[in-house]
Amino acid sequence: MNRRHLLASLPAVLAATSFAAAAESKLRVAVIGHTGRGNFGHGLDTMWLKIPAVEIVAVADADDKGLKAELKKLGVGKGFADYHAMLAEVKPDIVAIGPRHIDQHRDMLLAAIQAGARGIYIEKPFCRSLAEADEVIAAAEKAGTKIAIAHRNRYHPVLPVIAKLIEEGVIGRVLEMRGRGKEDARGGSLDLWVLGTHLFNLATYFGGAPKSCSATVMQDGKPITKADVKAGDEGISALAGNEVHARFELANGVPMFFDSVQNAGVKEAGFGLQIIGTKGIIDFRIDKEPVAHLCAGSPFNPAIKEARQWQPITTGGVNKPEPIPKLGAQVGSHETAGLDLIAAIRENRAPLIDAEQGRETIEMVSAVFESHRLKGQRVTIPLETRVNPLTLL
User: Fold this and answer.
1) What angle do CA 186, 154, 36 make, to 5 degrees?
2) What DSSP line would sit under 328-370, residue for residue?
3) H helices of 57-214, where?
4) Tens of pLDDT along 207-246?
5) Residue 379 in contact with residue 367, Cβ under 8 Å?
6) In whole angstroms, what separates CA 237 from the centre of its chain?
7) What is the CATH number of domain 3-153?
8) Which end of the chain is more exposed for a tag (fewer CB within 10 A), N or C?
9) Any alpha helices (H) in the chain, and if so which ranges?
């Protein structure tokens, strides 16, 4: 079964998983966070409170004040300052790795795998480099650990509905995809890492795996050099540039563009992905509900007579009410993703958004910097360079 079919069957998967929870023993979840260093991500701690199939048995946080607050919030009695000690003592079925600072991800992932975790749910981005991703994936495959990445929009069951609309020609021939980050103070390379990975993961669902990239990275209007490279925020290691312009070639032949300029304009106005065709545009607003809208009509004809309106796309169709109750809340709270990970463990299959896809997004980020390092040269994917290319400038 391919991922499109898996997504199409997601409501049934979730219903079956919830039903099975009553008949099977609960899976034991241990939560790792780090207050002041990425905290517990975007709700990767509280998501488990919404899922009857699991119970939270322990929490780890190196910050004492943060740990006490977290234990109270989750109603858990067992807390640890050292996540290694927690994993060794508790031996959980599932480990939630919450910190947004990704310099901790590789060590936390390997520790959870070595402790025998059956499943891991981790905040994005996946790892700092392709070398780290390669190491983690090899360890997980050897141990049989299922890793799911918190690109929560990819779990949305409206995606196969949109794929079918595209196949039916609702926007004509697909010409390109365009994505922009939030373009706030993080605009440029940090935006590429933190928010661009969401868009890459979404674009590859519709366009297939990335095959190549050409890109330019700028700092205050000039191409970045070695002198611009410094340790990035959120544990992103070597980083430089407050302006990024990239073009990817995807497997289905459709190009995907990503751009981010620091403080470009209205806050978050551009954050999303557009699929542009000869007869219309499908627009995705990340972490919003409805997540997608359709604007029918040629995007290249300003004199078109018909009024052009944005119509929501739901799992019921274009401009139809959403038939799944509280769908936005379920996806946004990671409940949908958590239920899928549980199903993946019990069915011995890959999660819908697995470690391979996590590595794919890191490959696209790395390809931007590798192309820039090679003076805008088109680089093919997978990359030969597995370290952060900015360290090689």
Assistant:
1) 40
2) HHHHHTTHHHHHHHHHHHHHT---SSBHHHHHHHHHHHHHHHH
3) 64-74, 83-90, 105-114, 130-143, 159-167, 189-191, 197-207
4) 999 999 999 999 999 999 999 999 999 999 999 999 999 9
5) yes
6) 19
7) 3.40.50.720
8) N
9) 3-8, 10-21, 64-74, 83-90, 105-114, 130-143, 159-167, 189-191, 197-207, 327-332, 335-347, 355-373
Instruction: Give the C-alpha separation, 63 to 40, whole Å.
Output: 12
Residue whose C-alpha is closest to residue 60's, from 42, 39, 360, 248: 39
Sign of CA dihedral 356, 362, 368, 369: negative
For the chain, the domains span: 3-153, 158-325+364-373
Class of the CATH domain delimited by 158-325+364-373 = alpha beta
Structure tokens at 190: 């940090």
Query: Which two tokens mark 160?
Result: 């196969």
- Report which of 380, 384, 373, 330 is spatially closest to residue 13, judged by C-alpha positions: 330
* Distance between CA atoms of residues 135 and 47, nearest Å: 28
Distances (CA, A) of 133 to 44, 208, 239, 282, 360: 20, 20, 18, 32, 9
Q: How many residues does the chain have?
A: 393
Query: What pLDDT score was predicted for residue 308?
Result: 79
Give the single-character DSSP code of 153: G
Phi (first) and psi of residue 64, to 5 degrees: -60, -45
pLDDT tens digits, 313-361: 999 999 999 999 999 999 999 999 999 999 999 999 999 999 999 999 9
Q: Would 3-153 and 158-325+364-373 be classified into the same CATH topology?
A: no
Dist CA 145 CA 99 (whole Å) = 20
